[in-house]
Amino acid sequence: MSMEHQTTALASAAAPSGGTSKRHTRSRGRSKKAADPYASSYGIVPFKMFRGRPWTSTRDLGEATVGKHVLLFGKVLSVRPLGNTKAVVVLFNSLTSCTVRCVVVAGSHEGVTTRTVRFAATLTRETAIDVEGVVSLPEGGKILATTQQVEI
């Protein structure tokens, strides 16, 4: 055992009976965070990822498209983070003057991590983004803040 380890053990044993200090409970070797397996699906991605794929207009979104996988383009109108695992992004398409709510929810089965949610929460107004997701009906009923009554 090195001298440094002995000193740490003695210092924590000599700490007051209320518990050990924060300095002595920290790990010496910092573990690296695991790499995000979905890091290539958000952030700045090459345009070639979207070539040859059908784009959907926000004007065409409705109850007939519920359950379908869509690819949208637009600008961020507003962002509302709802904790570490959920964020709401309102997407505006200036060509169609339509808005749609996009809900980003972290879940291992959906391919969205908490890092993806944090990235979405940092988007600024007027940022041009591509959104890929499944069209669904909102849980609470009618959406008052957007022109389309479905969400991605």
From TrEMBL:
Keyword Membrane on entry: no
Cited InterPro entries: Asp-tRNA_synthase_2 (IPR004523), NA-bd_OB-fold (IPR012340)
Biased composition (Basic residues): 21-32
Ranges of biased composition (kind: Polar residues): 1-10
Keywords in alphabetical order: Cytoplasm
Any one biological process term the GO annotation gives: aspartyl-tRNA aminoacylation
Gene3D superfamilies: Nucleic acid-binding proteins
Molecular function GO labels: aspartate-tRNA ligase activity; ATP binding; RNA binding
Record flagged with keyword Cytoplasm: yes
GO CC field: aminoacyl-tRNA synthetase multienzyme complex; cytosol
UniProt-annotated stretches for the region Disordered: 1-36
Name of this protein: Aspartate--tRNA ligase 2, cytoplasmic-like
Organism: Panicum miliaceum
Lineage of the organism: Eukaryota, Viridiplantae, Streptophyta, Embryophyta, Tracheophyta
